[in-house]
């Protein structure tokens, strides 16, 4: 017998369906951020120039960021500017609200500006998966079962593997940093344990896929939102707010430094 998702989760999920289906403007958002040269720490050390591509869904676009500058992207820029290993850091933002893994894959295959930027990048940061989960909600609401999410996960795994493969075909040497998904439902109800299990399972699969490739890192962020006593969500109770993006930027920086420094060594 299929185990049904509880009524509490169904009720809470319905609140988010409208916000998740609002894609806003459909045009691609591209932002290039350039940093001034930092002073050399000594005459024997030469910092490297770094080119980064951020691609994915609304978390890359920066929905919920009060400044409207791109969420974690400018915060990450500032953090990397403080690192003596780097100079002239360039970040191009190809985040698009509402993107699922199938849509991201199509963009990677069809949009030449994205392909060109990735071909020149030292690292590619990917945020994808949250809208795949919400697609399961929309497609099966209100009669959700765990089997629905299991089926959706299998499809997500295949598409995510293809995303990695496509990035590698464009640039075999770029470090790939994949950010996991988080559960926004805990804000409205602490009793919704099913969603915690679903998010954990999807993140586990995403991590396993990323570990199949060299020069990659997986960034866990679910614990940031679950364990914080501070409100980290925007007023839509779905996307991060400024504080949430600040913590995400810190996690991504840690992962990015690990893969970039490992590449240099």
Automatic annotation (TrEMBL):
Top-level lineage group: Bacteria
UniProt-recorded Gene Ontology molecular function terms: phosphatidylcholine lysophospholipase activity
Signal sequence region: 1-18
Xref: Gene3D superfamilies: SGNH hydrolase
UniProt keyword terms in alphabetical order: Signal
Coiled coil: none
Stretches assigned to the SGNH hydrolase-type esterase domain: 55-246
InterPro entries tied to this protein: Ester_Hydrolysis_Enzymes (IPR051532), SGNH_hydro (IPR013830), SGNH_hydro_sf (IPR036514)
Name of the protein: GDSL family lipase
Source organism of the structure: Jeotgalibacillus proteolyticus
């Amino acid at each position: 017998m299929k185990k049904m998702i509880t009524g509490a989760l169904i009720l809470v999920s319905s609140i988010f369906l409208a916000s998740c289906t609002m894609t806003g403007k459909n045009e691609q958002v591209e932002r290039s951020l350039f940093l001034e040269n930092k002073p050399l720490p000594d005459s024997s050390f030469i910092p490297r120039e770094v080119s980064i591509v951020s691609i994915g869904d609304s978390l890359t676009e920066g929905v919920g960021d009060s400044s409207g500058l791109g969420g974690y992207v400018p915060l990450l820029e500032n953090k990397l500017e403080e690192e003596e290993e780097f100079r002239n850091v360039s970040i191009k933002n190809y985040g698009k609200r509402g993107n699922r893994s199938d849509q991201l894959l199509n963009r990677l295959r069809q949009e030449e500006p994205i392909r060109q930027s990735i071909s020149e990048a030292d690292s590619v940061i990917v945020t994808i998966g949250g809208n795949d989960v919400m697609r399961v909600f929309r497609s099966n609401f209100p009669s959700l079962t765990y089997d629905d999410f299991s089926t959706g996960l299998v499809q997500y795994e295949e598409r995510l593997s293809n995303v990695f493969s496509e990035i590698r075909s464009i640039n075999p040497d770029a470090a790939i940093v994949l950010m996991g998904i988080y559960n926004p439902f805990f804000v409205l109800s602490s009793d919704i344990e099913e969603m915690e299990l679903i998010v954990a399972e999807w993140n586990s699969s995403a991590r396993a896929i990323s570990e199949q490739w060299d020069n990659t890192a997986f960034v866990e962020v679910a614990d940031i939102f679950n364990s914080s006593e501070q409100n980290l969500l925007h007023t839509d109770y779905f996307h991060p707010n400024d504080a949430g993006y600040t913590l995400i930027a810190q996690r991504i920086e840690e992962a990015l430094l690990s893969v970039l420094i490992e590449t240099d060594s």
